Amino acid sequence: MQHSMGLAAGGMSHPVITWEGLRAWSEQMRIELEPWETDVMMNLSCIRANVHAEKTEAERKKAK
């Protein structure tokens, strides 16, 4: 949750975690991530973006 507050929006899609952003966040917070934790965070970021996209699409269709 904390990391997602710092995601940069850029374009038409919902933001996702980047490798660079995750590294910067973990260094700034002084949190050493295990490889599996990095993998989970990257996957959850994609799931989060997909959920937001589906919600946006559902709201768009409902507004028609």
Fold blueprint:
Layout (H helix, E strand, L loop, with lengths): L18 H11 L5 H29 L1
Structural class category: mainly alpha
Overall 3D shape: elongated
Query: What is the total number of structural domains?
Result: 1
Mean pLDDT: 87
| Termini gap | 32 Å
Spell out the helices and strands N to C. HH
Residues in helix, %: 55-70%
Number of strands: 0
Biggest sheet statistics: none
What is the overall number of helices?
2
Rg over CA atoms, rounded to whole Å, is: 14 Å
Structure commentary:
The mean pLDDT is about 85. The termini are far apart. With about 60 residues, this protein is an all-alpha fold. The protein is about 60% helix and about 0% strand.
Nutshell version of this structure?
With about 60 residues, the chain is mainly α. It has helices at about 20-30, 35-64.
Protein traits:
0% strand, elongated, single chain, mainly alpha, 64 residues
